[in-house]
Specification:
The protein is mainly β. The protein contains three helices and eight strands; from the N terminus they run ββααββαββββ. The protein is elongated, with a radius of gyration of 19 Å. The protein starts with 7 loop residues before the first strand and ends in a 9-residue tail after the last strand. It binds zinc ion. The site of zinc ion (ZN) has 6 residues, from helix 2.
Length: about 150
């Protein structure tokens, strides 16, 4: 519950979503009782921010891969794979072009310098070089104890 008394769902993607019951516009009677709320834990919810490929604002880069080219791109990246819950990634092209395919919604992007590919947690995807290319992948997650560092 936030400071206004509204319930907030913590999603595996890292987004936090208000789940309000304010009829007639927002109908979520289940949010009122603890028993009904607990039944929703672990159940899928739509996430508009994931639909828009928006990484959670407070996420920080914590690791990046070596630089790959069309000859050294690991087989694991050419096959369908996904990141763990709560882990986003950015595919950064330094030079050339790279196809970034997401099979579930049938979406494809052509990545180039300045046009990164945003990888949503647990969403299966793969990449395919288009001619010669240089790229790396950066991983992001919510910082642990971020507020206690200072
Ligand atoms: Zn989300």
């Amino acid at each position: 519950m936030d400071e206004h008394g509204d319930w907030v769902a913590f999603l595996n993607c890292g987004h936090r979503q208000h789940v309000r019951h304010r009829p007639p516009f927002e109908e979520r009677p289940w949010v009122i009782t603890e028993i009904e709320r607990s039944k929703k834990i672990g159940k899928p919810m739509d996430c508009l921010r994931c639909d828009r490929f928006e990484m959670p604002d407070d996420f920080k880069a914590y690791r990046k891969t070596a630089e790959f080219n069309e000859r050294t791109v690991p087989k694991s990246l050419r096959r369908d794979h996904s990141t763990k819950p709560g882990v986003w990634a950015k595919i950064q092209v330094i030079e050339g072009k790279l196809n970034y395919r997401i099979d579930a919604p049938g979406t494809q992007f052509e990545l180039s310098p300045g046009v990164p590919g945003i990888v949503i947690p647990e969403v299966r995807h793969h990449v395919e070089p288009v001619g010669s290319v240089r790229f790396f992948v950066e991983f992001y997650q919510r910082p642990v104890n971020d507020s206690e560092d200072g």
